[in-house]
Every structure is written in structure tokens, then in C-alpha cells.
Amino acid sequence: MPPHRGHQFLIDFARAYAERVTILVCTLERDPIPGRLRYEWVCEMAAAPNVDVVHVDEDLPQSPADHPQFWEIWQCVIGNAVPGRVDYFFACEDYGPRTAEVIGDECRYVPVDPARALVPISASAIRGDPLRHWEFLPEAVRPYYVRRVCIFGPESTGKSTLARDLAREFKTVYAHEYARPLLDPHGGQCRLEDIPAIVRGQVATEEALARQANRVLFCDTDVLTTTLWSDVLFKATPDWIQALAERRTYDLYLLLDVDVPWVDDSQRFFSAEPVRRETYARFRDALERRGRPCRVIRGDWNERLSAAIRAVRELL
């Protein structure tokens, strides 16, 4: 909890050693990280034609002190998961030799870096400070721990530029505003029927890049922003998009004020100062009503970047 590079080494070692490998992902309902999620992570980490991943989600004893028939119980669990003969049992823990004996006389224990010298990490260390041990997290696991920062606010406030600059400063990636490339071929004109495609594209961009991020992912807009614009432009937003906007939250919102000049382009609408102020208030209120963590960013471009960098450093 979570699977890490040490588990990846164990998996890859077994795949290179044996012709066919079965991995048991054993989870409890009370675990702090959902078992189904961990099973899916391991399926991705171990994906190969000669590997089977089995999810065991029974409430099983975790040590011999927990139950007088501990070894008999686990013998049945392993036998049900791996029918037929088991030649090798791979582990780095000290329960390896005894488990191999329980599996059967023909099974041999194969130790894999028991000193943890090759991949010096533990799951408890990662849980204690995941960002410090980022290099030990497999790509499949990183989206679970990555800090997400949403660049939020009205049009023409420098969101895209700030997202790019922050990504450069923190040596990571950013998710762009998906609506722009989607609407550019149509002269920037948005229709109500475009809203679902914008939302799906925005979410997909973010989730894909979360796997590549270095501790923090900057997101140039979000689903909540799309709902606000849909309500303004069309007086309507599909219910499923409204629900999605409530579920998708970020570790920090950088709310950009409208105290910079308005710049025209093919996808902007409201240049009048009173309307810009009204729009800013709508965005601010949307965050306040939901109690989402927010830092207001204002001033000239250099001041904005400096304030945003300070806010992100505090988050990390």
C-alpha cells in the first residue's frame, strides 16, 4: 500500500525467472487504499502474456498470531488461486521459506533482494511522504498521489501562460485547455453540443498527463469552469457534467483576478470592465460555496508568477 518500484522488481524478477507467474494481490476492506484500485495498479505493472493477477479480498489473518490455523488458511487461499503444481514462491519477506513449505513439497522459495538493497524503499515510507519518494512510484500509481493545481478564473487573465510557466518552474507537465484546439477549426464558436466533448477531453488530458507529472500537475481550467461558461452562454449544463464538476476537486486553485488588460482572440467574449468584474465574482463565489482551497493571484505578469510559485511551494 501502495505498490512501488520494489514490487515492480519482484514482479519483473519472477517473470524473468519462471515460465508462468501468478501474483496474488491480497487486500482488506479496512485498508487505507482501496483494494480494487491496488489490484488494477498491479495488473498494469505486471501486464504480460505469462502473468496472471488474482485479487483476494477475503478478511484473512495477517500473521500466525492472528489465527491458530493461519498456515492452513493461506494454503487453501493459494491453492484456490493457483490450481496445479507451484514450483517457486518469490518473496523478499521472511515469511518466504515457510510459505513455500506450506504450498507443497515441490515448491521452492526464491529470495528476491531480502535486504532491500537494490530498491531501498518501503510502502510505509511512501505513505508517510509520497512526494519525497516520488522516484519509487510506478507510473500507474502516480496519479493517486500527484498534487493537482487548477488555474482558475475568467478569460484573458493569463491562465494558459501561467500554467506553462509553472510547469517549467517545477519541472513537470501541464494540462492545456482542451476547448481551444477543439473549437479553433470552427472559428472559436462554441455550441451547447460541444460541451460534453470539451469536458471529456479536458478530463482525459488531465488523467493522461497525471501519469507523467513530477509531483505536481498544473491544469489550465477544469470541469467546473466549463459548467460556469455553459450556464453563461447557454443557460444550461447537462446534469452529468454538473455532478462531475462536484466530484473533481484539486489540492489548490489559483484564482486569477481581472486586473490585467483584456486581449482579444477568437474564443473570448466579454471585454467590458463591469462584465469582467461580474465574471470574476461568479468564479470566486463558485469556489467559496464549495469550500475549495484557493489563493487569489493578482498584479502584473511577474507578480502573478511569483505569487503562484510561492503558493505551490507551500502546497508541496
Total DSSP helices? 13
Number of domains: 2
Q: What percentage of the residues does DSSP assign to strands (E)?
A: 5-15%
The stretches of 5 or more residues where confidence is low (pLDDT under 50) are none
Q: Tell me the structural class.
A: alpha/beta
CATH fold assignment of the largest domain:
Rossmann fold
CATH architectural group of the largest domain: 3-Layer(aba) Sandwich
Number of strands: 9
Which series of helices and strands comes N to C? HEHEHEHEHHEHEHHEHHEHEH
Strand order of the largest sheet: 6-7-5-8-9
Molecular shape: elongated
First-to-last CA distance: 21 Å
Notes on the protein architecture:
This protein has helices spanning 5-17, 35-45, 70-81, 96-103, 123-128, 142-145, 159-169, 179-183, 195-210, 223-234, 239-247, 273-290, 301-315, and strands at residues 21-26, 51-56, 88-91, 108-111, 147-152, 174-175, 216-220, 252-256, 294-297. It has 316 residues and is of the alpha/beta class. The chain has 2 domains: 5-136, HUPs (Rossmann fold, 3-Layer(aba) Sandwich), CATH 3.40.50.620; 146-315, P-loop containing nucleotide triphosphate hydrolases (Rossmann fold), CATH 3.40.50.300. Helix 12 links the parallel strand 8 (252-256) and strand 9. Helix 7 (159-169) packs across helix 13 (301-315).
In a nutshell, what does this entry contain?
The chain is an alpha/beta fold.
Write the SSE topology.
Layout: H1 5-17, E1 21-26, H2 35-45, E2 51-56, H3 70-81, E3 88-91, H4 96-103, E4 108-111, H5 123-128, H6 142-145, E5 147-152, H7 159-169, E6 174-175, H8 179-183, H9 195-210, E7 216-220, H10 223-234, H11 239-247, E8 252-256, H12 273-290, E9 294-297, H13 301-315
Parallel strand pairs: 1-2, 3-4, 5-7, 5-8, 6-7, 8-9
Helix pairs in contact: 7-13
